[in-house]
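Query structure, 92 C-alpha cells:
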C-alpha cells in the first residue's frame, strides 16, 4: 500500500512510530512512574484520581501541541520545496 493510500485510510500516525531509545527519555519516564506510585500509596484514592485526571488532561494538551507543531513543520517543509523548485523567494 502506498503512503498516499495509508494516509487516506488513516493509517499514517507518525506519533505511533516513535520509539525513543534516548536514555534521558527512559530516565524521565521511570521518574514519572516512581512519582505516580509514591503518590498512589500516600494519597487518599479520591485525591489520586484527581491527579490522574490532571495527568490525562496534560497528555491531551501535549498531544494537541505536538500535532500543531508537526503540521506547521510539514507546511514549512512544503513551502521550502516550492521555493526550491520554483526558484521563488519570500513565500513566507
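Result returned for the query:
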Amino acid at each position: 500500500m502506498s503512503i498516499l493510500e495509508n494516509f487516506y485510510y488513516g493509517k499514517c500516525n507518525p506519533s505511533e512510530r516513535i520509539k525513543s531509545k534516548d536514555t534521558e527519555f527512559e530516565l524521565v519516564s521511570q521518574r514519572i512512574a516512581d512519582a505516580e506510585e509514591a503518590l498512589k500509596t500516600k494519597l487518599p484514592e479520591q485525591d489520586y484520581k484527581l491527579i490522574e485526571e490532571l495527568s490525562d488532561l496534560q497528555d491531551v494538551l501535549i498531544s494537541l501541541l505536538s500535532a500543531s507543531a508537526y503540521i506547521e513543520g510539514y507546511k514549512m517543509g512544503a513551502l521550502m520545496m516550492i521555493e526550491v523548485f520554483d526558484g521563488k523567494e519570500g513565500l513566507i
